[in-house]
Amino acid sequence: MKLIVGLGNPGKEYEHTRHNIGFDMMNVISSNYNLTFTFSKKFNAEESTGIVDGEKIIFIKPYSYMNLSGEVVRKYMDYYDIDVEDILVIQDDLDMELGKIRILHSSSSGGHNGIKNIIDNVGSKDFTRLKIGISKIKDIDTKDYVLGKFSKEEREMLDKTYDKCKNIVSDFVHYNINELKQIYSNLNNN
Asked: Model pTM greater than 0.90?
């Protein structure tokens, strides 16, 4: 069993903001696999379960707000007895060019508070992350920037990135971390 976590913040005001790239990517994945998300009060997350290439996958969007995402991830791990190595977290990254992607495993939070909270709550950094670049404009306060919406041009660029990443789930099921890193590093060159 695998757990796929898209990071973001719940609520209309946060939809399609830079910090909600994980939620947006989960919507792309759900469309790709014909999944429907429903809210689970027990876990405080939108969730969907499916079988991908013979593997049971739980897809979640934590509703605890970004900085407390680890609490929700921990609940799923405990309830379903999911190993930290079977978790993929999809997140935004300020330090990467818009639309660029990178796979990491067993890495520090890099200053991302949602990732830091997951590491703190699961007691390990030995999970896989798909980072999607959102760039950074130095003249804008970081909080305002990450909670801002993408321009039409930026959204079109991200749609291409999402399309390239739509098979991330089946790739996560089939490949080890080194193979995943190779696959997704090549995508940045296309």
From this structure: yes
What are the pLDDT digits (tens) for 24-58?
Answer: 999 999 888 899 999 999 999 999 999 988 999 99
**Which domain does 39 fall in, by range?**
2-187
Which CATH number belongs to the domain containing residue 175 in this structure? 3.40.50.1470
Q: pLDDT (tens digit, 9 = 90+) per residue, 127-146?
A: 999 999 998 877 788 888 88
Output 6-10 pairs: Cβ under 8 A, ≥24 positions apart. 6/59, 6/60, 6/61, 6/90, 7/62, 7/66, 7/69, 7/89, 7/90, 7/91, 7/92, 7/114, 7/115, 8/61, 8/66, 9/65, 9/66, 10/61, 10/63, 10/65
Catalytic residue among 16, 19, 105, 174: 19
Tell me whether residue 19 is one of the annotated catalytic residues.
yes
> What is the total count of domains within the chain?
1
